[in-house]
């Protein structure tokens, strides 16, 4: 017999009296069972929008999150074993529910933040549940978590990311492959996870520098599938601008920040590495950031076709000018501090500074050429005005945007220090005539003219 929404609500309201005599685990299990039935009936009734009522949310807070009903009632607590059993029950519950709409509504009822004291319990339980889902491969929970990460304030998103980094990159040696292997089974979760960790680790301090294991994992993910960082963008309806409190729609801004700041950030920590007698991690990180930088540039070069398909070419900036302004401000501060580092020679520091600025110039050039960044040259000159001189950056700030027609092997041989620069802006060296073989645009990119003589430098850090 079909249950009406009103009967459904009454049914959930009557459950509390039957839950009170039960032990904490039994009560939580019983409530999850009834919550599943309640949401299934709500979806079946066609109620729009399908929304869990406040009384049901109160039951969740009382019997699953164990928030006290009132100040005079002490909250019930689970033992560690009971909590583990509850997590296993929740994993099975989401795994066995075949309808994604029901799963998403149930996950939202359990873990959408309400702005009350129960939110701390929500976050604690969510971190343990997602960590377990990674460990045992519960893809429905990871998919629901990806949606949660899209809709939740970034402060809480980075808290969840920190839990996973601690669990899989710090606390348990050898557990990184468990997290790494999910990229093929839940790419949506991986994309949101990358966005969250690039928001968390901004390289402003040693504590906010990504662990080498995390960096290696993300670099390998993007090398294997550059489109991974665009999954959220490709699968989400975009209506206007993103809420200012949410994570970015792609991790591109955070990845650019990582790659550009890395030479200076890791050189800042080199003294610690030297004192401990090991620079292996530092060297590994340099190579990983170099590879990651190349992968990010290749992602930018995938965008014209993708944006054209969505009708957004020239209309949507996936790299925000405000994010770049914050980055250049950080770079200015880091470069000012670089001269004070006595453990690094001035020649080495100059090399690292130029590498940092080269990477910034490359990112700006390729992002603008592929319309991931929509701004004027005047805007760029304004945000870069406090940075030291760099040949390539100067060319990007003053010259035309260059387009490339080869996304697989971007030209990487140009050096701003070459004796014969191919840039037309140099008065002593007129522009070269394009070769005949390059005169016609590549058929895959009919709208992009090809211009020779503007490759960008790419140098691994040392």
UniProtKB/TrEMBL annotation:
Q: Where is the composition biased (Low complexity)?
A: 423-442
Q: Which InterPro entries match?
A: INTS15
Region annotated Disordered sits at 423-452
Identify this protein by name: Uncharacterized protein
Q: Which organism is it from?
A: Solea senegalensis
């Amino acid at each position: 017999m079909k249950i009406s929404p009103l009967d459904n609500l009454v049914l959930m309201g009557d459950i509390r009296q039957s839950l009170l005599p039960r032990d904490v685990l039994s009560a939580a299990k019983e409530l999850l069972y009834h919550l599943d039935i309640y949401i299934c009936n709500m979806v079946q009734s066609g109620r729009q929008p399908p929304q869990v009522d406040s009384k049901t949310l109160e039951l969740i807070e009382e019997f699953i999150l164990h928030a006290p009903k009132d100040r005079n009632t002490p909250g019930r607590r689970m033992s560690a074993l009971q909590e583990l059993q509850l997590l296993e029950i929740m994993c099975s519950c989401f795994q066995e529910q075949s309808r994604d709409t029901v799963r998403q509504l149930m996950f939202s009822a359990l873990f959408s933040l309400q702005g009350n004291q129960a939110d701390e319990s929500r976050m604690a339980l969510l971190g343990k549940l997602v960590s377990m889902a990674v460990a045992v491969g519960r893809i429905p929970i990871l998919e629901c978590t990806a949606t949660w990460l899209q809709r939740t304030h970034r402060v809480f998103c980075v808290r969840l990311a920190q839990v996973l980094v601690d669990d899989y990159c710090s606390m348990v040696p050898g557990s990184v492959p468990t997290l790494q292997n999910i990229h093929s089974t839940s790419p949506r979760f991986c994309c949101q996870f990358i966005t969250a960790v690039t928001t968390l680790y901004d390289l402003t301090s040693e504590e906010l520098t990504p662990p080498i294991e995390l960096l290696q994992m993300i670099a390998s993910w993007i090398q294997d599938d550059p489109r991974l960082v665009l999954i959220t963008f490709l699968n989400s309806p975009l209506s206007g601008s993103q809420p200012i409190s949410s994570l970015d729609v792609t991790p591109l801004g955070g990845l650019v920040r990582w790659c550009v700041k890395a030479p200076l950030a890791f050189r800042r920590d080199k003294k610690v590495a030297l004192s401990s007698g090991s620079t292996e991690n530092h060297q590994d990180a340099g190579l990983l950031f170099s590879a990651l930088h190349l992968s990010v540039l290749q992602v930018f070069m995938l965008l014209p076709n993708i944006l054209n398909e969505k009708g957004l070419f020239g209309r949507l900036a996936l790299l925000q000018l405000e994010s770049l302004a914050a980055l250049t401000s950080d770079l200015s501060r880091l470069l000012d501090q670089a001269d004070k580092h006595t453990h690094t020679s001035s020649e080495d520091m100059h090399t690292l500074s130029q590498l940092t600025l080269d990477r910034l110039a490359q990112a700006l050039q390729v992002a603008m050429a592929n319309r991931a960044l929509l701004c004027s040259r005047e805007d760029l000159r304004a945000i870069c005005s406090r940075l030291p001189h760099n040949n390539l950056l100067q060319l990007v700030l003053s010259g035309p945007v260059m387009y490339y027609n080869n996304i697989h092997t971007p030209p990487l041989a140009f050096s701003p220090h070459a004796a014969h620069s191919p840039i037309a802006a140099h008065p002593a060296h007129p522009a070269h005539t394009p070769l005949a073989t390059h005169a016609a645009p590549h058929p895959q990119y009919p709208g992009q003219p090809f211009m020779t003589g503007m490759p960008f430098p790419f140098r691994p850090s040392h």
